[in-house]
Write a structure and sequence with these properties.
Layout lengths: L9 E6 L3 E9 L7 E10 L5 H6 L2 H20 L6 E5 L14 H9 L5 E5 L6 H6 L12 H13 L21 H13 L10
Parallel strand pairs: 1-4, 4-5
Antiparallel strand pairs: 1-2, 2-3
Helix pairs in contact: 2-3, 5-6
Length: about 200
């Protein structure tokens, strides 16, 4: 990053219902079509406020993502005379610094005080890296669907050694919002099912 202050820093950013992602890069000096990647970043929305992010407007999530990742690169670009070029597929962010959409926009702009950045619209079909970084498997939903959790438990139990079936206790940590009784049934059924001899390797 020796020439980081000589070239413009770009950041593609996006948010989903479950998290946010960003790709920070500079354009290659020899090949303008090639990107020199500085970092890929993903972050899931925290558990305490996950539900509010899930039901919030896209502008709220996208603004949160923009603010978070600009803070992440602040040490990198603090001494650069060039503003960070932010690219988002959420068009309203383009005017966030120049309009008053309410307390959310004001809060984001206030927290980014001292940072120089310009926001540009990037069509969603071309913002594929940041979009992928904001979704599974880079970030995961904070709650698991019971059907998927039971299927995952089935796979786990199938791959345990046969001696485990006769142990007195099996400790299993599960998500607090999922009913333990459903998962207990999966374990009881596994205990009573004869092992599949075709899975035994000699």
């Amino acid at each position: 990053l020796g020439d980081v202050y000589k070239r413009q820093v770009h950041m593609d950013v996006d948010a989903s219902q479950y998290g946010m992602g960003a790709c920070v890069y500079q354009m290659n000096e020899d090949d303008p079509k090639r990107k020199d990647i500085i970092l890929f970043a993903s972050r899931a929305f925290d558990d305490d406020r996950h539900r509010s992010y899930t039901t919030a407007s896209p502008f709220y999530r996208e603004a949160r993502a923009l603010a978070h990742f600009l803070e992440e690169v602040r040490p990198l670009v603090a001494l650069s005379p060039l503003p960070v070029q932010v690219h988002s597929d959420h068009l309203p962010l383009k005017w966030m610094k120049h309009s008053r959409r309410g307390p959310i926009a004001d809060f984001v702009v206030f927290n980014l005080g001292g940072m120089h950045f310009d926001t540009h619209y990037k069509p969603g079909k071309t913002n594929i890296i940041a979009d992928a970084l904001s979704r599974f498997p880079c970030v995961s939903p904070n709650t698991f669907h019971l059907k998927g959790l039971k299927a995952a438990l089935d796979v786990l139990l199938t791959n345990l050694c046969d001696d485990t079936r006769v142990t007195d206790h099996i400790w299993f940590t599960h998500h607090e919002h999922q009913p333990a009784t459903e998962l207990t049934r999966v374990i009881k059924r596994w205990r009573l099912t004869p092992p599949d001899l075709s899975l035994i390797h000699i």
